[in-house]
Amino acid sequence: xxxxxxxxxxxxxxxxxxxxxxxxxxxxxxxxxxxxxxxxxxxxxxxxxxxxxxxxxxxxxxxxxxxxxxxxxxxxxxxxxxxxxxxxxxxxxxxxxxxxxxxxxxxxxxxxxxxxxxxxxxxxxx
Length: 126
Known about the structure:
Strand content: 5-15%
Order of helices and strands: EHEHHHHH
Number of helices: 6
Helix content: 55-70%
Radius of gyration: 19 Å
């Protein structure tokens, strides 16, 4: 059976959707690339700077609290006695420590990117 496929993605996955369609036109009949990245940047420090600038709107204490939270996560993950227990709180025990720390910080940045800055900062303040 020959079933046509359409690839779908938003942001970086949107770019992957478009690239897949470009590379494999015989496997797809279309691609939906919502907010797809036009120029992929390997070391995109401006993203982190924007997240910091955004959380600073709640006060300097918020980026400081996030930085302390990340440092504490690193300590817990890199300690053999606490690593698995801490990662289990996120159902992430199968991830390497490096993968988990990326996931952990990306989770925080995603909250800011998708409109949850005030909720995040308020949660860290209380």
